[in-house]
UniProtKB/TrEMBL annotation:
Swiss-Prot/TrEMBL GO biological process terms: negative regulation of DNA-templated transcription
Matching NCBIfam families: TransRegBhcR
Protein name: IclR family transcriptional regulator
Pfam families, sorted: HTH_IclR (PF09339), IclR_C (PF01614)
Region feature (Disordered): 1-24
Span of domain IclR-ED: 89-272
Classification via SUPFAM superfamilies: GAF domain-like, Winged helix' DNA-binding domain
Amino acid sequence: MNAETGPERRARGRPRAWGDTTEQNKIKSLDRALVILERLSERGGATLTDLSEDLDQSPATVYRVLSTFEGRNMVDFDPVAQTWHIGAGAFHIGSRFLRRTSLVERARPFLRELMQKTEETANLGVSRDGLVLFLSQVETHHNIRAFFPPGTMSPMHSSGIGKALLAQMDDKEVAAIIRKHKLTAFTEHTLVTPEALAADLEATKARGYAFDAEEKNDGMRCIAAPVFDMHGEPIAGVSISGPSARIPDERIDSLGASVKETAAKLTAALGGASS
């Protein structure tokens, strides 16, 4: 007991009895503002008119939100092009997420080793809300290369890492992700039916690695494998990506073996166990 303040209070992350996630605990104006920030990040830059029409909100409301974010360096305004963009403040906050977990730090040497062995860009990603969130990347030295900066989000059905993780999920989990995000076609090779995706995921699980055959971007291929935690649950995926000319059919098996080996090493380094 503290003589001046009385009994010490246990630190809490939220008020008592506020354990639910219902609408009553949300600040609606803040939620709307974050929707504007998220949409701006998705678009990579937009005019006030574009954003207000896209979100069906008044230009005055959107402008007040953007001005508030600008004051915190969360967004920037280009007076020449009359467009708004994500600012350095948002990047700094996002980068702190990467420092929160040891996954990125532990994975870095393994990604570097994988890049050196395959001479292709090595990537690390996790599942977030039914999408792939790329956390780290070691780029190849080739002039033509894939580029997924940390923070990039990608649909799971058209991503090597996404399919590697989907293959570890049960049918209900996969179906829920399909319902939420749809099977959007990006190229003529994208898997756009549940049946085609299911067959691909079955093959992925059998061989231990996923193969993205130009399903997101024409001329680019990706090979990925899952990383597991101590309970044998998939927590991340590692991959290599590069132009199809450097990842021809005859190299897929050998490259797949290298990616699987790296995923297994990272799993062991994290104290994980293969599924």
